[in-house]
Amino acid sequence: MPIWLIWIPTERIAEPAARGVWGKSLENYLADTMRTYDDAPHSDLLLEDRPKPRPVANPLKDEARRWARHCAQFRASDHARAYGQIASTVLPLIVLTTLMFLTVAHAYWLTLLMAIPAGGLLVRMFIIQHDCGHGSFFSSPRMNTAVGRVMSVFTLAPYSLWRREHALHHTGSGNLDKRGVGDIDTKTVAEYLASSRFERWRYRLYRHPLFLFGFGVPFYFLILQRSPWLHGLKAAEAWRSVMALNVAIVAIYGLLGWVLGYVAVAMVLIPMLHVAAAVGGWLFFIQHQFDETEWYKPEEWDMQIAAVHGSSYYVLPKVLQWITGNIGLHHIHHLNSMVPNYRLQECLDALPELAEVNRLTLRDSLKCVSLTLWDEKNRRLVGYREALASA
């Protein structure tokens, strides 16, 4: 989820469109997640005339493929569980929102208190939209599209735009040349040291947790996503998705404001959306910004290896895992994005060794906010002091 408020790497915005979404359509990307393939050499020589190359052992690749084959067994959608997840998300949200409107005029402190669990349910709703975008929530593409678009009216994330941008994230996650779309922007130590004083200041402000999660991410979701510009796609490609959602927002929330009062609607919705955006931004951050993460140069990058070693397993208390739709099992999600969120835990339980990969507890995760730069020499994330000390 890029936040372009103060950090707009324009060369990275233009690059995906110039390359035709990095040379992969979403359909091709989804197909790639559903199969294991070999990079076979091509030659005009007959097979029998060509010397047979000696296979190069790559334990990381073999391990990643074995795990990917395991995850592929859990791709099938379960409509009963999908409908159950929608009901267990939407119904409590309706109840909480109703109570917030009932208290907004006389006990606003209680309204703000209820905005916390309501925001959590919006995060859970976003995970449903996320799975619909991957085509994993239902077996029917039409159902995925319909439900995903309905959810977007509440999450305020344009469905088609976000679906395509997020596909870019999966096809380039962990690749140093494909940073800046669908993730938190991250500089290398060399890039930071080569930056001007103003660029360093801007980057440090962008990465400061109070700014990033308290203002930047909510501003992106509430304001910047209302515009077709400043995204990883051309404005012409984003226009329809963004404007269709904007029309729906004006119609639905305009009607709600006409009935209940526009000030009351704003006082109820803005706090819960702010909570949801901040929590969602933190999840995006911690899924790939942790001590043991990996980034690779393009010639070293492998999609499956990067999926495993560049994504965390965020171990949360059960109630938080439920609210966040199991998205903390992010290494499994990147190994096969066609596994619906309600089957991720099942997939993990069936292969316990996955529970030991990039394991990150809630306490551990809080220490990761100081990790801001990728050290290419030592292959790990470091803070500013360590980066300057090594210069």
Q: CA-to-CA gap between the ends?
A: 30 Å
The percent range for strand residues is: under 5%
Helix/strand/pairing category: mainly alpha
As a whole number of angstroms, the C-alpha radius of gyration is 22 Å
Strand order of the largest sheet: 1-4-5
- Average pLDDT confidence is 88
Number of helices: 18
- Give the tally of structural domains: 1
The dominant shape is globular
- Fraction of residues in helix: 55-70%
Q: How many E strands? A: 5
Q: Please give the largest β-sheet.
A: 3 strands, mixed
Uncertain stretches:
1-27, 33-48
Spell out the helices and strands N to C: HHHHHHHEHHHHHHEHHHEHEEH
Description:
This protein is globular. The chain contains 18 helices and 5 strands. It has one domain (11-22, 58-389). It has helices spanning 10-18, 26-33, 59-72, 79-103, 108-134, 141-155, 159-172, 189-193, 197-207, 209-222, 235-260, 262-288, 303-309, 318-323, 330-335, 344-350, 362-366, 384-389; strands at residues 187-188, 313-315, 359-361, 373-375, 380-382. 59% of the residues lie in helices and 4% in strands. The strands form 2 sheets. A 3-stranded mixed β-sheet has the order 1-4-5. Strands 2-3 form a two-stranded parallel ribbon. By secondary structure, the protein is mostly helical.
